[in-house]
User: Which sequence fits this backbone?
């Protein structure tokens, strides 16, 4: 099916809203407050700028799990309004929990019943209120740029801890957000300690209006 076409003014308006939440230099609390403010406009804004992260994740997940999708337990981190869960459900994945610090974004996801458990929390230096080995797959689609670029080692260890052995952590984002020294060092730290291994890396020339994307798949060991 052809992608919908929007006027340059509509695209500009979508980009204005997205820029408001991805402004460089914002601290963590301000980022979450801004997502709270724009939660009702979020899906529309991302659609206007041709954001493909959630669809890409849904398709990649479906390719890795061609059968028994109803048995795959997923934690969607930085869940937002549930755009990724919406795509996963199209492929028959039904057991999806969402972790997201903005209550208003989670409330938008609740309106469409996209998750089983709604966990209002941040990924960071904290220990998540989730038991070890709880999920087959942890996905993280489009985590806020300023957070992603500085994601601490503990946050990545938490993603691996809540994933069962042989399960996967799947991350996609703007390609530029994978390039910061901090995220690169921390991602490979877990590889060198054999906590996980990089199983696949895909690129997309345009994940959003004029920006390339990367999707990485880590197998938890
Ligand atoms: C661009 S949205 C992506 C939402 C959804 N995954 C999608 O692709 O539409 C970024 C999300 O990251 C969330 N976020 C910000 N800081 C976070 C943190 N420390 N841990 C987890 N999520 C965070 C924001 O609240 C926001 O909902």
Assistant:
């Amino acid at each position: 099916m052809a992608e919908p076409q929007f006027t340059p003014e509509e695209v500009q308006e979508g980009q204005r809203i997205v820029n408001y939440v991805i402004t460089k230099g914002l601290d963590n609390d301000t980022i979450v407050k801004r997502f709270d403010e724009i939660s009702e406009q979020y899906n529309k804004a991302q659609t206007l700028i041709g954001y493909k992260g959630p669809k890409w994740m849904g398709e990649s997940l479906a390719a890795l799990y061609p059968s028994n999708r109803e048995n795959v337990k997923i934690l969607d981190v930085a869940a937002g309004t549930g755009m990724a869960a919406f795509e996963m459900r199209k492929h028959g994945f039904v057991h999806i929990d969402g972790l997201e610090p903005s209550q208003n974004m989670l409330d938008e996801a609740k309106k469409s019943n996209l998750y089983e458990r709604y966990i209002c929390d941040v990924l960071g230096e904290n220990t998540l209120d989730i038991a070890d080995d709880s999920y087959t797959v942890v996905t993280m689609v489009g985590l806020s740029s300023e957070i992603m670029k500085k994601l601490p080692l503990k946050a990545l260890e938490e993603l691996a801890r809540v994933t069962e052995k042989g399960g996967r952590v799947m991350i996609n984002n703007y390609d530029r957000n994978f390039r910061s020294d901090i995220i690169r060092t921390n991602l490979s730290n877990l590889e060198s300690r054999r906590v996980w291994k990089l199983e696949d890396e895909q690129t997309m020339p345009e994940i959003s209006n004029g920006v390339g994307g990367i999707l990485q798949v880590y197998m938890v060991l």
In short: The radius of gyration is 16 Å. Strands lie at 73-77, 95-99, 118-119, 135-141, 163-174, 196-208, 211-220. The mean pLDDT is 96.
